[in-house]
Amino acid sequence: MARIHSLAYLSSHRCTPAQAVRVAAQTGFEQVGLRLWPNASGAPHQHLIGQPQAMREMLAALADTGIGVLDLEIIRIGTAFDPHQWDALYDIGAQLQARAILVAGDDPNETRLTESYARLCEVMQPYGMSADLEFMPWTAVKNAQSALRIVQGAGMPANAGILVDALHFGRSHTTLEDIRAIPRQLLHYAQICDALAGTHFSDEQMLHTARCERLLPGQGSIDLCGLFATLPDDLPVSVEVVNLVHEAHHSPADWAGRCLNASLTYTT
Measured by CB atoms within 10 angstroms of the end CB, which terminus of the chain is less buried, N or C? Predict the structure, then answer.
């Protein structure tokens, strides 16, 4: 079965949600990812929540193109976590028939973080989406082993998930064996990009790369061949390549096409 490829928010951050859908259709993607909740106060994101006209345009674009919504961003589990803070995100995700919401773990108390994650899965369950915990080496969930430990500690809820981003695989203490150890039912999609691999980068350097300077697959040194040979061959792939310098020379559609074409070497 061929993999589904999704145009991630970071690959289309210059687009409105409706524009991202049309770019995805134009360039060969089957799905899109949207950031409808900022990853930090005041940070850039796309606007659909509380925007009825934008929502009408989005639904029309989905109907016109047949594109689906893979994932929404982002829920951050901090020390004072209330899963109902994101009720509007769950509602709009259900309307869009999104499959997953990306979750980051920021609470350094792993016991409390695990309890909060379990509660999040419980609250999200009626909305039909999975809560995909992404390990990132600058967060409290630093590698694949810690993500699996948290999900297992939460009782393996039916809508639990672990998100594998190639960037964080390449820059955390995560091995292919760790990836292989993730139960198949926890894998709903993975993200692809490239960068220089290694565990010597500072948090500031890792954040800069993640948010501003990812490379097209094949331009860095992350073991993308090994990673995507290890992941299930039918796992959807979110193509997530933001590079503010390089993409400035391309239209959103041209950049999206370049991102997809570079990814196909490793995902097909």
Answer: N
Report the candidate in 221, 214, 218 with the shortest Cα–Cα distance to residue 266.
218
Mean pLDDT, rounded, for 110-119? 98
pLDDT tens digits along 196-213:
999 999 999 999 999 999
Amino acid in position 189: Y
According to DSSP, the β-strands at 100-105 and 237-239 are: unpaired
The answer to whether residue 41 scores a pLDDT higher than 90 is: no
Query: Domain containing 113: what range?
Result: 5-267
Query: Tell me, what CATH number does 10's domain have?
Result: 3.20.20.150
Entry pTM? 0.97
The structural domain count of the chain equals 1
